Backbone:
């Protein structure tokens, strides 16, 4: 009964204290009390029946008290007690179930996943005992909620480990819930492209600590591993493709061989050189694709006796082999041997179509290969005409041959279209041709200012000396080894005649100099290259490179290779109006693959209003229904869509873009295979785990133990509980005792008034 | 001690002076008056052939010598020294003035920076010879190349060299050089015989439009060519009509023929430098 009257148990009143939610200042309280008392006294003083000292005082007192009680209710009376809120700590345990977790743990007795499952069990037990809610996620390419029972039945089967994506998904899944920490149980092998450290930092910024527990060996013995393979995604049929494979010998000193297979057919094999410690060694390999279309290749190092992991001895490579003809415009100032030999070298090469504009005399041109007669009036005067070419060679032709507009077109051709521009030596080239004050001077890799060039053509004899950069550069590559290549160039016949150029621009690369220094001891630059905007430029100072052909045996192909490589390098940056790129040309089943199409108009400006669609051809040669590729807000002219392949094999991608200029088409391909990326780094990536923990503000243990993580989480949980101690306010305005008191006072007043004849 | 061959080579340059004086004394006017309209350069160089009797145009006289032309590169017109039979009167070094006159005409007529210095190359010095991707060869009589020279010539041509040959015509009526040349080239390229060069071939219209090779004197044979088996490039060009003597400018050939001889010479050089 008493508890009902007071609304709360007496125990609560004992531990708490009563107050007002809207407590006025003491002076105001006194003033109100006095005002109410005066008002009550004054109100009964006007009535004659109440006159009489005792009666008036009684009535005024009762009215004052009742009024003050009403005012008290309005001020919000509360009972304040201290409350320790029951704060729930939630922890996500993210356990890596990718294939690399199936590798042996550090002690070799069990797999990493088995060790991780044991560690998770311990962690769960410790945390649950402290009232902490542990939620379990299995992570691979993504994070999947699971239970301890389900996890116990799981095997290490995921093809990839995207730690960054998985961590982000866990953080986002916890949105709204009070996730306090993530414990990552993994070997740290990240096969995705995103940075898990950045994701850990993001989690920490949301108050979620990321702890890392590592499994696996820090160093793997007796295991050969193909660490990395670099090769082009596209290649020309009949042109040598160069592969670079980084191989870690893993302590194996026996002779090893790197083999390249195409459809089980051995194409090449190269010995793996001895290693310096645990550092990977690079093996270079070249092959010439003979067929058009996608080529699926396999690089393999046969397993050494007793090798622990053989999955990382093999890598799949996918190359799109095409036969395209690069159209090159060669503008020649007058007939000379250099023109004839260069043209011959490129004419013999089926990868090039050389369109030549040769000035025979004033207003007289000789043009070859110009099927569309776009050169009938001389050098192209519009970007559309020039856009047909991927590279332009200016061979001994003076700047005044071109109009200002044509020079500006050439500059745009390089900067915007990504075309290549090469200036050859001659009496009308570089500064001698009056290019010093033109826009082309800004594009060339050498300075044409008076102090940096000689005033006249140098007709002396010299040899080409490849610089260290040049020895390894694709333009000058006659032999794969840079040192041997430089030696090979030293054996090339001497040339005669050059434009003495002495200073390269800061962004340029000098690939070759002349063997003979000038009077001041400076060696003229023979070949310099640089990237300009989207394109490339090169300056080749010699005027008689044909000597490399005439003064070598007829079957020596150095001259032809040099010019082929030069043109290919120049044209490499030239953009098509529709370009299809895939984020990878090797994909895994059920993993999304991004298809990106870049569309531009004839002036190479990004075009956003195209209707772009793609048709995928599956491994059985069936065309899947076409799907649109929407414009990406990320970049002008870029259209993006993802495709999820479901089965292994060869896929073709045909992209169409409908623009006001017509229908454009481009093709690409990719190969879907069970990924062996998981075994690329069979050792635990301790550094990655350390960095994740550091960024996530958590602990790291690389021995598979969870003690530090558990302690840190428990300590955080305790601290969180202290922080959540709060003062609880309980309403008293509706306490029955208060209401009854007011009513009782009003009744008392009424009864007294009635007795005195006032009511 | 100088051998006979080296003596010839040494005096070759000095021989250029005498014929110049001779022709000047003969009152032979400048060959510049034998003007012809250069062929319009169509796409791909395919122009309709024009007869060498086409009327003279003021092309040459209207064209200033030098200022409007930008000469680039360096082109030499070397004479090939080879072993000739001793019993023939005019050997490999016959009439160097013809070469000189052609060089001067090429300089006037075209944009080619042809150097007027006489140059002699020798099949016995292949590396020196290969510094000149174009060589000219003429003589009056039969000749037989030594085996070493055969190999040298084959290598030279395969590297990219061009050989222009003309029969100087023994006593104005023979064709000994022409026949010997074809025979010797069969030794150089046994698997690739010389073939007649069709009249619509670019060498006859790449600069001037000509109706085949001009003929000054001797037995009239078709112009023969040795074509690269892979690219079709003309590597060797042989004429039987003594166009070289046309360059010398013997009046008995007639102005029109002499004009055609020069045009053929220009075309041979332009073809070499554009193919």
Residues:
């Amino acid at each position: 009964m008493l508890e009902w009257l007071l609304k709360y148990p007496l125990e609560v009143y004992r531990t708490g204290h009563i107050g007002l939610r809207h407590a006025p200042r003491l002076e105001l309280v006194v003033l109100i009390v006095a005002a109410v008392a005066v008002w009550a006294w004054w109100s009964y003083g006007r009535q004659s029946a109440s006159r009489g000292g005792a009666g008036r005082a009684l009535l005024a007192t009762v009215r004052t008290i009742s009024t003050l009680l009403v005012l008290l209710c309005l001020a919000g009376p509360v009972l304040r007690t201290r409350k320790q809120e029951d704060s729930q700590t939630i922890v996500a345990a993210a356990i890596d179930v990718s294939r690399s977790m199936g590798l042996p743990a550090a002690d070799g007795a069990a797999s990493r996943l088995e060790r991780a499952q044991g560690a998770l069990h311990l962690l769960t037990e410790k945390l649950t005992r402290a009232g902490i809610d542990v939620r379990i996620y299995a992570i691979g390419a993504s994070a999947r909620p699971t239970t301890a029972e389900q996890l116990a039945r799981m095997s290490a089967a995921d093809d990839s480990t995207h730690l960054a994506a998985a961590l982000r998904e866990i953080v986002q899944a916890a949105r709204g819930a009070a996730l306090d920490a993530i414990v990552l149980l993994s070997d740290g092998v990240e096969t995705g492209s995103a940075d898990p450290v950045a994701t850990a930092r993001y989690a920490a910024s949301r108050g979620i600590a990321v702890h890392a527990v590592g499994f696996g060996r820090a160093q793997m013995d007796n295991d050969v591993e193909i660490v990395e393979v670099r090769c082009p995604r596209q290649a020309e049929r009949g042109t040598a493709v160069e592969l670079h494979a980084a191989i870690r010998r893993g302590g194996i000193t026996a002779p090893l061989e790197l083999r390249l297979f195409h459809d089980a057919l051995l194409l090449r094999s190269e010995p793996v050189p001895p290693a310096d410690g645990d550092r990977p060694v690079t093996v270079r390999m070249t092959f010439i694709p003979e067929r058009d279309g996608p080529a699926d290749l396999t690089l393999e190092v046969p397993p050494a006796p007793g090798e622990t992991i053989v999955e990382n001895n093999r890598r799949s490579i996918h190359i799109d082999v095409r036969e395209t003809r690069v159209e090159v415009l060669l503008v020649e100032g007058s007939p000379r041997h250099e023109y004839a030999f260069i043209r011959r070298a490129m004419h013999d090469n089926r990868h090039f179509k050389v369109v030549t504009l040769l000035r025979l005399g004033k207003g007289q041109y000789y043009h070859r290969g110009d099927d569309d007669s776009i050169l009938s009036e001389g050098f192209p005067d519009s970007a559309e005409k020039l856009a047909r070419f991927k590279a332009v060679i200016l061979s001994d032709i003076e700047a005044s041959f071109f109009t200002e507009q044509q020079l500006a077109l050439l500059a745009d051709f390089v900067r915007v279209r990504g075309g290549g521009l090469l200036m050859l030596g001659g009496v009308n080239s570089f500064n001698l041709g009056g290019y010093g004050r033109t826009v082309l001077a800004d594009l060339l890799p050498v300075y044409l200012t008076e102090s940096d060039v000689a005033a006249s053509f140098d007709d002396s004899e010299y040899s080409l000396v490849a610089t260290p950069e040049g020895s390894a550069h694709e333009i000058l590559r006659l032999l794969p080894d840079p040192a041997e290549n430089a030696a090979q160039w030293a054996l090339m016949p001497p040339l005669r005649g050059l434009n003495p150029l002495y200073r390269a621009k800061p962004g340029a690369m000098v690939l070759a100099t002349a063997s003979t220094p000038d009077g001041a001891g400076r060696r003229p630059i023979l070949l310099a290259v640089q990237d300009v905007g989207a394109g490339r430029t090169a300056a080749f100072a010699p005027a008689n490179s044909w000597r490399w052909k005439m003064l070598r045996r007829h079957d020596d192909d150095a001259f032809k290779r040099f010019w082929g490589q030069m043109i290919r390098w120049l044209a490499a940056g030239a953009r098509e109006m529709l370009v299809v790129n895939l984020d990878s040309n090797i994909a895994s089943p059920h993993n999304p693959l991004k298809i990106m199409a870049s569309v531009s108009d004839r002036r190479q400006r990004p075009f956003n209003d195209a209707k772009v669609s793609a048709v995928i051809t599956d491994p059985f040669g069936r065309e899947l229904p076409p799907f649109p590729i929407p414009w990406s807000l990320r970049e002008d002219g870029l259209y993006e869509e993802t495709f999820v392949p479901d089965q292994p094999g060869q896929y073709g991608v045909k992209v169409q873009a409908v623009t006001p200029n017509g229908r454009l088409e481009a093709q690409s391909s990719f190969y879907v295979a069970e990924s062996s990326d998981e075994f690329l780094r069979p050792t635990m990536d301790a550094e990655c785990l350390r960095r994740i923990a550091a960024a996530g503000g958590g602990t790291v243990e690389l021995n598979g133990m969870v003690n530090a993580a558990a302690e840190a989480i428990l300590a955080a949980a305790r601290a969180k509980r202290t922080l959540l101690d709060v003062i609880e306010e309980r309403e008293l305005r509706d306490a029955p005792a208060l209401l009854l008191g007011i009513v009782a006072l009003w009744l008392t007043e009424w009864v007294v008034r009635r007795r005195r004849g006032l009511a | 001690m100088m051998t006979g061959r080296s003596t010839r080579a040494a005096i070759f340059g000095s021989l250029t002076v005498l014929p110049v004086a001779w022709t000047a004394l003969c009152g032979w006017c400048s060959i510049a008056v034998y003007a012809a309209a250069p062929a319009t350069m169509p796409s791909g160089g395919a122009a309709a052939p024009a007869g060498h009797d086409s009327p003279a145009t003021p092309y040459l006289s209207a064209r200033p010598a030098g200022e409007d032309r930008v000469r680039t590169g360096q082109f030499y017109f070397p004479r090939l020294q080879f072993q000739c039979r001793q019993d023939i009167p005019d050997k490999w070094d016959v009439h160097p003035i013809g070469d000189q006159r052609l060089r001067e005409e090429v300089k006037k007529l075209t944009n080619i920076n042809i150097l007027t210095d006489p140059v002699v190359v020798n099949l016995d010095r292949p590396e020196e010879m290969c510094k000149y991707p174009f060589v000219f060869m003429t003589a009056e009589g039969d000749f037989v190349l030594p085996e070493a020279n055969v190999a040298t010539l084959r290598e030279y041509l395969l590297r990219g060299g061009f050989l222009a040959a003309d029969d100087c015509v023994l006593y104005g009526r023979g064709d000994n050089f022409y026949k010997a040349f074809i025979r010797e080239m069969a030794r150089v390229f046994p698997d690739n015989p010389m073939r007649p060069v069709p009249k619509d071939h670019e060498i006859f219209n790449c600069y001037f439009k000509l109706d085949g090779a001009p003929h000054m004197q001797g037995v009239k044979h078709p112009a023969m060519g040795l074509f690269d088996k892979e690219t079709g490039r003309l590597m060797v060009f042989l004429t039987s009509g003594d166009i070289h003597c046309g360059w010398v400018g013997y009046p008995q050939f007639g102005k029109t023929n002499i004009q055609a001889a020069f045009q053929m010479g220009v075309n041979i050089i332009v073809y070499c430098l554009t193919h």
Summary: Chain B is about 35% helix and 15% strand. Residues 68 and 111 of chain B are 9 Å apart (CA to CA). The domain at 4-274 of chain B is CATH 3.40.50.12140 (Rossmann fold).
